[in-house]
Amino acid sequence: MVGAAVGGPRVTAGSASSWRDAQDRPAVVPPVPGPDAAPFYLPIGEFQGEDYRRNAFAAGTDEEVAALERLVGGSAAGHTEGFAPGSAVLDVGCGDARHLRALLTRRPDLTGVGVDVSPELIAAGRRSAAAELQLELLVGDARNLSEVLGARSGTFDGVWSLCQGALGTSPATDPVVLRGLATAVRPGGVVLVTLFHALFAARHLAPGDAFDTIELVHHQRAEVRGPEHARRSFDLWTASYTVREAVGLVEETGLEVSSVRGVEPGSYARRSAGEVGLDDPELLVIAHRPA
């Protein structure tokens, strides 16, 4: 069997034929960025800036945050209404901080810190945030999260990384990013991540897209909308995972997985814990750092 231990690095075949198009034919794809490559999302964020909020996936932000609050309450002993009062929440790969802004609007007693590699997206988030929100936004690379956070690493009650904003951009960097999340949360705190679902990715390849059947990476050349109706095309690589791989990846950091479920943007509470459909685009993993 081609592969590796659950959660460990995958073994590549070293052949271009592992990339397949929507008709299951060999495809030629630009190399997946390596662990030390510049983040390919950086120029996308710099191009979009304020227009990031117009992306279709951003429309369901309020529903996602409401669902996350319910799920956190259901997974934490003693808390039935989401994060405990006064909790500090960290969003890694926050974009324009849409999830944190929605959370703190619902829960002004909470404090939030967002980290994103794009200065333009961080600036857009700062401009959009209401002045009364207890929100701090930082420019930083998720691969160096402990350096970005400094002494605050290990103090957060909740940490999340959603919508492939930092986690899921490359199988080479995902373990590093996850270790940063596990280090950032306090003992007993909760970590929530969404990962692209490999079964969905393989079943729903669009014309022009490609899928690496060994590394389970999805590639597309996407047209992105920017200011004043400008459009640019960018290469996007998204690492995808089976449930078994996702759980193994998270557990290798020392976190304890509480639940996994299939989700889609704007609908994080559609399934029960342990329920994953073939057509669920993402996996939501909820884990805790041992106390």
Q: Which key features would you list for this structure?
A:
25% helix, 11 strands, Rossmann fold, eleven-stranded mixed beta sheet, disordered N terminus, 291 residues, 8 helices, alpha/beta
CA gyration radius, whole angstroms: 18 Å
Q: Which stretches are low in confidence, meaning pLDDT under 50 for 5 or more residues running? A: 1-14
For the record, give the distance between the C-alpha atoms at the N and C termini, rounded to a whole number.
37 Å
CATH superfamily: Vaccinia Virus protein VP39
CATH level-3 fold name: Rossmann fold
Mean residue pLDDT: 91
Strand fraction equals 25-35%
The tally of structural domains comes to 1
What's the arrangement of secondary structure elements?
Elements: E1 19-21, H1 41-48, H2 61-75, E2 88-92, H3 98-106, E3 111-116, H4 119-128, E4 135-139, H5 145-149, E5 156-161, H6 174-184, E6 185-197, H7 198-203, E7 210-212, E8 217-225, E9 231-241, H8 243-251, E10 256-263, E11 282-288
Parallel strand pairs: 2-3, 2-5, 3-4, 5-6, 6-9
Antiparallel strand pairs: 1-7, 6-11, 7-8, 8-9, 10-11
Helix pairs in contact: 2-3
Please explain how this structure is put together:
This protein is 25% helix and 26% strand. It has one domain (39-288): Vaccinia Virus protein VP39 (Rossmann fold). The chain is α/β, with parallel strands linked by helices. The chain has helices spanning 41-48, 61-75, 98-106, 119-128, 145-149, 174-184, 198-203, 243-251; strands at residues 19-21, 88-92, 111-116, 135-139, 156-161, 185-197, 210-212, 217-225, 231-241, 256-263, 282-288. Strands 1, 2, 3, 4, 5, 6, 7, 8, 9, 10 and 11 form an eleven-stranded mixed beta sheet that branches. The chain is globular and about 55 Å long. β5 (156-161), α6 and β6 form a beta-alpha-beta unit.
